[in-house]
Amino acid sequence: MPRELAPAELAEATRHHLVYSIGKTPDAAKLSDWRLALSRAIRDRIVDPWVATTRHVYAHDLKRVYYLSMEFLIGRLIEDAVNNLGLEPAAREALASLGVDFDAAMLDEPDAALGNGGLGRLAACFLDSMSTLGIAAHGYGIRYDHGLFRQSFRDGWQIEDAEDWLAQSHPWEFERTEAVWPIGFGGEVTTRDGRPRWEPAETVLAAAYDTPIPGWQGRWVNTLRLWSAKPTKIFDLEPFNRGDYMAAAAPAVLAQTISRVLYPDDTTPQGKELRLKQEYFFTAASLRDLMRRFFSDHDDAGLLPSRVAIQLNDTHPAIAGPELVRILMDERGLGFDEAFAIARGTLHYTNHTLMPEALEKWPAELMARVLPRHMQIIERMDAAHAAEMRAAGRPRPDSVGCIRDGEVRMGDLSFIAARRVNGVSALHTDLMRRTVFRDLHALHPDRIVNQTNGVTPRRWLRSCNPKLSAVITEAAGEGWEADLDRLAALGPLAGDAAFRERVMAAKQANKRHLADWIGATCGLTVDPGAMFDVQIKRIHEYKRQLMNVLELAALWNEMRRDPGAPVPPRVRIFGGKAAPGYAMAKAIIKLINDIGRTINADPAMKGRLAVVYPPNYNVTMAERLIPAADLSEQISTAGMEASGTGNMKLAMNGALTIGTMDGANVEIHEAVGADNIFIFGLDAEDVSRLRAEGYDPGAHVARSGRLSEVVAQIRAGVFSDGDGERHRAVADNLTGHDWFMVAADFDTYWDAQRRVDAAWADPNGWARKAVLNIAPMGRFSSDRTIRGYARDVWQVTPQF
Ligand code: GL2
Questions:
Q1: Which of 76, 121, 352, 462 is an active site residue?
Q2: 61-76+111-453+786-794 adopts what CATH topology?
Q3: What is the number of the ligand 1 atom nearest to the C-alpha of 350?
Q4: Would you say residue 2 has pLDDT above 80?
Q5: For residue 761, what is the DSSP state?
Q6: Relative to the CA of 71, which ligand 1 atom is closest?
Q7: Helices 705-716 and 545-561: crossing angle, nearest 10°?
Q8: 574 touches 613 (CB < 8 A)
């Protein structure tokens, strides 16, 4: 733990940075200047332990973990730094002495939204845990100029605008001008001195920017290294001198395009060639970087698997397999067999979704054109794998292979190039073995392992929910933030009325705070005494926000029919973005907003039912909503949500889950017990059976009076100013196709919601359930997950 810092000392350091790093005087400084100055002052506190960590790793030659991910949804780093270094009291006092509002300064930092959703946020939680546990790790990714788009609503439709997190200087990073790698694309493969030689047609530079990642109490500091694309030449002098400035700048513009934007789509391979280039760009730069580090103190490439573990976060960095083989063969002179064996001892692959459209595939023609040498190596790896299987008496079925039907299959490539392949929840891993990877699993029965996801309790409990954290500290003692199993101490207190009251008082305070924010930002008055019912995640058909809003409309119908019915007041809150190209998800957003507007405008619903959908859901908004949630909606079609992590964050903060037996809900159900969760609907086997039998959504709609009524209202334009056409695509899809089985689950969802109502009517019982949700959450700390990876996948020993 770094030396204690007195508020006066931090205030002085902040003032110093304001003047000498930011170039402003206190009288002229704006909030963002103060925030940048404070960030610099805090960053100074991280550098010494960062250097010490690096020295320790070198001195002990610790095995290193490299986490390669296209996405790191890290949010505001000032919060992690203040929180993990225990600086909040000092920083609060220091800023107060300078006349600056600490909370406003914290919120002033723009979210680094370098990810889409769960996959990217998981990577951020893992960074925090790897530093907290003392694992020698680097995160490697892309320093996108523009992170995930900014969402607003116009007439209830989603509008996207470019996000601009780098508009102000980013105070946490260090540019490393010495760490620059040329990355090639295209061209051809020739032979020189008997060795294949790739001569790319086009080259860009990958320039490194390092962000230190301090763990809990700042004992260990790892590095997140993000790559930015730069041109090899700033501009072409010849056209410039001719006065053709556009032509002079063109090569630079093209190069910079590679790290310009994050693809706002996390389920389908997009933008083809540029996306493939992005993937190769950061993977190749990362491999060169880590291989340089490895060879700086080892001569024997054969040692790589014992010194280095590389984790591929989904298939996006899957080109790491052929790239590593290429480096070992073409640059280090190893034979193919040896190179392939080394790669297969070093690489590991995490699968994050079973949706077939998300397992990346590239046209073989594109791969051969952009990465000709890699295409040769992929063919060779694939042939070697087939030969190996034949020799072992287990010939491959036709369903296996990296190149099939003119496409390169990154899922198969990742699998055959990896030492371990893991799923992200028990159910998901089981389904991986039985469905998408069934044949590969039969060939390699030991390769697939499970590592259920987790979330960092430092950010998702301690920092976002200080009130509940204080109650937990009273019950479990100091230090639970790095030892979350200690929450178990809360279990026996569920029966203690005074304790329950303290937990619920924290919840109530958080709800009041959120209600104020909703009033200020959405112009809606909501009652903090109502149940806050929250569904926050990317908008996707499989996540079934549609089912939620249809039930909401049905509830409205019921409440209007029977105004005296004892329905507890609810505020239903949505948060989430739809991929810009995903028309159905955008149509669902519009429907939510239309139904919400209709309900909110009904005077009879005042104080009884309200709908809130604040635009631009992001990490910071999640930190507001989660501590204030009573009910957590986790209602995906069973078998579709690989794990979910919002489900964990919400339960950890005392929200009760209404959900299907999907992803990590299954394990949450097991942990909290059937009495403390509202499970409903088809399970994964029911879903596949029903699909196989021939699912008829129209029949389900017809059988459900409530659902039919809502569908008829949608078609009649009840929610759309009489315009029956507006939501036709959604209604037609529901009655005619409904791949995600909203109609089949609707009635059991309705029933589960009424069980929720009944439970809410008993405040003591609800509070007890809330405590019994928090108590077993140690299991969903990302520290537990990372210990699992360390032991079962990477074979490294955490230092703490
Ligand atoms: C996801 C899964 O959909 C989600 O269930 C899982 O929790 C996360 C992290 O493992 O990964 N896969 C994916 O592509 N995104 C996810 O959130 N974006």
A1: 352
A2: Rossmann fold (3.40.50)
A3: 10
A4: no
A5: T
A6: 18
A7: 100
A8: yes
